[in-house]
Design goal:
Elements: H1 3-21, H2 27-36, H3 48-52, H4 57-61, H5 73-83, H6 88-106, H7 137-158, H8 162-171, H9 174-184, E1 188-198, E2 204-215, E3 219-224, E4 227-232, E5 239-251, E6 253-265, H10 266-277, E7 281-289, E8 300-303, E9 306-312, E10 323-335
C-alpha cells in the first residue's frame, strides 16, 4: 500500500491500542505512529520512507526482497524489544504503527512473508478477488474507510476507559467506578456521570460531578452546587447510585504536605493554605481537637474523640477561629503536571500562656485580677 494509507492505518492502530490499554493519546505519539507505519517499507528503494531516509545501499540490501525481512515476525519481535527501551507512550506508538503496516499488507494481493526466512506468503482473505489492489480503487476505498474510523477511534482513545472500562461504563457499576478512581486518582481530575436518588428526600439525581475523594469503602465524595455529597450503593451515603460512569478530566498531579502540631491558631492554618489554593485544589484529610466546630458531613464530622476531616475544602473552615490542638492533617494539593509545590512551613506549636498565680501564696491571690 502507499504511504498515506499506511500513515492513516498506523495512527488508527495507535488509537485502538490506546483505547484497549487506557493510555491517553498524545499528539507527538500520534505522529510517531504514522512514521513507524512506514518503516517496514525501508526494503523498497522506491518507497517514500526509503527515499527520505539516507541509508546506504549496502545496509538496505540487508533487508532483502520487498515484504520479507521487514514484514516478518522476526522484525515485529525485534521492534517490540526496542520499544521496551523508550517511554511507554512512544513505544506503544512505534509498535502499533509498525504492526499495522504488516497487517495492512497482508490484505493486499501480494501478501507478506510473515514467517521469513520461510518463503511462504501470508495473505487474507483467501480469495484473491477480495484482496486490495495497491494504488487501485480498492485501496482508495479502504483508505477512506480508515479515515472515517480515525475520528471515532480518537474519541474512544480520549475517553481513556480502555476496553474493560468501556464494558464497565455500559454496566454503570458504582463499585467499579470507585475501584478505577482508587487506581488512577493521581493521574488526572475525575468526574462521575451519575443517576440515582437522594437517600432522605428520594429526589432523582442525574448529573455530572467532579470527584473530590473516596468515602468509606465503596463510595465517593462529589462536588455539587449544594456542597460536598457522598454517594454509594447504600443508605450510608447522601445519594444512592443506580448508574455511575467515571470519566477522566484534565491531567493533574497530587502533592501532599503535612501539618502535625500540638497547637495552632485557625487563622494561621488558613494563611498556610492560601499559598496552595493559588496552585490548585486543596483538600484536608485528618483529625484535630477544637471547640465550637460544627459538623458538615461528609467532609467534616464531629465526635467526642475530636474533629475528623475527609477531603474538606479550605472554604469550609474559613469561619473557624481560636486555638486548634492535636493537629494531624494531610494537605492534598491537586495541580497541573510540572507545577512546583513549595514546602509547608508550620510555625512552632502554640504554648499555653503561663499562669501568673503560680508560686503565689494563697492569701495573696485576692490581690491578683482574674
Amino acid at each position: 500500500m502507499i504511504a498515506p494509507t499506511h500513515i492513516i492505518g498506523g495512527q488508527l492502530s495507535y488509537f485502538i491500542a490506546c483505547w484497549l490499554s487506557g493510555h491517553p493519546p498524545d499528539l507527538v505519539e500520534t505522529l510517531v505512529a504514522g512514521f513507524a507505519a512506514l518503516l517496514p517499507d525501508l526494503d523498497h528503494p522506491k518507497a517514500f520512507i526509503a527515499r527520505v531516509t539516507p541509508l546506504p545501499k549496502q545496509i538496505r540490501a540487508l533487508f532483502g526482497k520487498h515484504r520479507t525481512v521487514t514484514h516478518s515476525l522476526i522484525a515485529i519481535v525485534l521492534v517490540w524489544l526496542v520499544t521496551r527501551l523508550v517511554p511507554d507512550g512512544i513505544g506503544l506508538a512505534i509498535f502499533a504503527g509498525y504492526l499495522s503496516h504488516v497487517f495492512l499488507d497482508i490484505l493486499t494481493k501480494s501478501g507478506v512473508a510473515l514467517f521469513w526466512p520461510s518463503r511462504a506468503t501470508i495473505y487474507f482473505p483467501g480469495n484473491i478477488d477480495y484482496r486490495i489492489t495497491v494504488m487501485g480503487r480498492s485501496e482508495l476505498g479502504f483508505a477512506l474507510l480508515l479515515l472515517i474510523l480515525w475520528a471515532p477511534a480518537l474519541w474512544a482513545a480520549h475517553h481513556n476507559a480502555g476496553f474493560l472500562g468501556t464494558v464497565r461504563d455500559m454496566i454503570g457499576d458504582m463499585q467499579a467506578a470507585r475501584d478505577h478512581f482508587d487506581q488512577h486518582r493521581h493521574e488526572a481530575e475525575w468526574w462521575l456521570n451519575v443517576r440515582g436518588m437522594h437517600n432522605l428526600t428520594y429526589e432523582t439525581i442525574d448529573g455530572h460531578y467532579k470527584i473530590m475523594g473516596h468515602y468509606r469503602a465503596d463510595g465517593l465524595i462529589l462536588e455539587t452546587p449544594e456542597g460536598p455529597r457522598s454517594i454509594c450503593r447504600s443508605n450510608a451515603c447522601d445519594w444512592f447510585a443506580t448508574h455511575a460512569v467515571i470519566q477522566r478530566g484534565m491531567p493533574a498531579r497530587t502533592s501532599s504536605k503535612y501539618v502535625r502540631t500540638r497547637a495552632i491558631r485557625a487563622e494561621t492554618l488558613r494563611d498556610l493554605l492560601e499559598l496552595y489554593e493559588q496552585i490548585g485544589e486543596v483538600y484536608l484529610i485528618g483529625q484535630l481537637q477544637a471547640e465550637g466546630i460544627r459538623a458538615d458531613p461528609p467532609t467534616i464530622t464531629v465526635s467526642e474523640s475530636g474533629v475528623r476531616l475527609n477531603f474538606a475544602q479550605p472554604s469550609q473552615i474559613w469561619h473557624w477561629s481560636g486555638r486548634i490542638t492535636e493537629v494531624s492533617l494531610r494537605v492534598q494539593i491537586r495541580h497541573e503536571p510540572g507545577v512546583r509545590v513549595p514546602p509547608l512551613e508550620v510555625p512552632p506549636a502554640l504554648e499555653e500562656p503561663p499562669d501568673p498565680t503560680i508560686g503565689i501564696h494563697p492569701l495573696m491571690l485576692p490581690y491578683f485580677p482574674d
